[in-house]
Design brief:
494 residues; alpha+beta; Immunoglobulin-like; Jelly Rolls; six-stranded mixed β-sheet; 9 helices; 25% helix; 21% strand
Length: 494
């Protein structure tokens, strides 16, 4: 079916998802009065749990459930609430976004023109869906990332994993046991009944957009019955999706988690935390009722959630490594990657939900020069120099994008250049020693150096480097922050 966005936001769609999830998360992390239905009296059926036990359960449960609730908030805005201002398309309907973002775009932070997106949110309860990709030029990188309600990246179709040939891929829910029809190249299993699917298609330059649109026109998302030309099965039961916003999550966090868990069958590593949550009534098929808990237990739950939120924030600050002034990290992956480390999963969602895992892309970022001083185009000029043979080691492509440090929008400049990427190398000038220097400054470095100019704002700046399909053989940035290759220093030149 077809239908015509803080950190590391690849374009409007994904950055919007992160922005909305972050606002929800921020409201939770900022509040110390998560009332959980305070004021109601306990019912005779209240779970038997002490205040101390409830506090610990709420702390651990908040950490476990935060990514799942954040994901539900995005799903609600994107495919359920048509009045959200962010609505994209109904379930199982493909939407393409193809445009070049400029400094005039001030709705969403950190956009870029590297990889325009296509999007479908799959409802896998009644039947699987089939994702079709066309034959794509081997020189053009693309990927299709499957992310479930657990925020696990459970599969990736694309240049690195399946190649650029055409194919049909069937995405199935956790309980599906049907037959695989002819013509299916691979079966991909989500751990939850709902799944977001993100298509990234490389854009070589603004003039290349028409070619990206042709690729996107070849993407398809069809139910299995439509693909096979058979009658559709009975529709899945309608769900009375509760509204969600930052304010509501302050009092209803565990109600949302209770709902999402109903569509996410537990794996063995979840047995312990789910058993604990059941003791306060969470995991009861969408019937969690905080009013059934005594007032002192509700107060303990609020305290536990605050402690859990503090732990998430602390873990975010330790993600990755500081190298030459760049923060290099990757905290995304599949179920096996997290292996029950719920704090890592929560920190990853808080830092930038829906990120690619390191094998697919690494995103070094910086606000500081190599000497530790804040980057500021009104005060200094800078250079970034890649020594001979030390360009980012990737199989696909790399880029360095400039943003205003205050707004994280693209920076207006006289040459309408917002990034430098590897497809531009043929037009850039290399030094006599084989090195490549990028001039980072607000004013032109001169016509003879303008091909290597990354325009900067007249004030604070923020830069993000994107390395798609990083090489594994040395020198490599993998594992992130520990590999033999490091991002070069941002050097103050005056």
């Amino acid at each position: 079916m077809k239908a015509k966005h803080r950190l590391q936001g690849p374009n409007s769609m994904l950055s919007l998802a992160r922005s909305r999830a972050r606002r929800l998360c921020g409201a939770l992390l900022a509040t110390s009065a998560l009332l959980c239905g305070a004021g109601a009296s306990a019912s005779p059926t209240a779970p038997s749990v002490t205040s101390a036990e409830a506090r610990t359960i709420a702390e651990e449960g908040f950490i476990y459930g935060l990514p799942m609730v954040m994901d539900y908030a995005v799903m609600y805005d994107f495919v359920i609430n048509r009045d959200s201002g962010a609505w994209k398309a109904p379930f199982n309907t493909l939407r393409n976004e193809a445009r070049v973002f400029t400094s005039a775009d001030t709705t969403v932070v950190t956009p870029n023109s590297d990889t325009p997106y296509s999007f479908v949110w799959a409802d896998l309860r009644a039947e699987p869906i089939v994702i079709t990709v066309p034959q794509i030029d081997p020189k053009r990188y693309y990927s299709v990332m499957m992310v479930d309600n657990n925020t696990f990246n459970y599969a990736i179709i694309g240049t690195r994993t399946t190649g650029n040939g055409a194919g049909n891929f069937m995405v199935v829910g956790p309980k599906w046991q049907g037959e695989t029809p002819a013509g299916i190249k691979q079966v991909l299993r989500s751990t939850t009944e709902f799944s977001m699917i993100l298509f990234r298609t490389q854009l070589f330059s603004p003039q290349d957009m028409s070619n990206v649109e042709k690729v996107q026109a070849g993407y398809q998302a069809r139910t299995l019955s439509a693909f096979a030309g058979k009658p559709a099965p009975a529709a899945a039961p309608q769900v009375d999706w509760p509204a969600i916003n930052p304010e509501l999550t302050r009092t209803r966090f565990f109600e949302y988690l209770d709902l999402v868990m109903d569509f996410a069958p537990p794996s063995p590593e979840e047995a312990t935390i789910r058993a604990k949550l059941a003791r306060i009534g969470v995991g009861t098929k969408g019937k969690f009722d905080p009013s059934a808990l005594p007032p002192e237990v509700r107060a303990a739950i609020a305290d536990g959630m605050k402690t859990g939120s503090d732990r998430v924030e602390a873990r975010v600050s330790t993600l990755g490594s500081e190298i030459n002034g760049w923060r290099v990290s990757s905290a995304f992956g599949n179920r096996a990657f997290f292996n029950g480390d719920w704090l890592l999963r929560a920190a990853a969602a808080r830092a930038g939900i829906y990120g690619l895992h390191a094998e697919e892309a690494v995103y070094p970022m910086t606000r500081n020069a190599a000497d530790g001083s804040p980057l500021d185009g009104s005060k200094h000029k800078y250079t970034i120099t890649f020594a001979k043979g030390q360009l980012p080691p990737v199989h696909a492509f790399w880029s360095v994008t400039m943003y205003d440090g205050k707004t994280q929008f693209l920076v207006a400049n006289p040459i309408d250049r917002y990034l430098i990427n590897s497809p531009m190398l043929g037009d850039m000038k290399f030094g006599a020693d084989g090195s490549l220097t990028i001039y980072v400054q607000k004013d032109s470095p001169g016509k003879d150096k303008e091909s290597n100019w990354l325009p900067a704002p007249n004030g604070p700046m923020f830069m993000a480097m994107r390395l798609y399909w990083p090489k594994t053989e040395p020198p490599s940035i993998l594992p992130p922050g520990k590999g033999a290759w490091s991002p070069p220093k941002v050097v103050v030149v005056d």
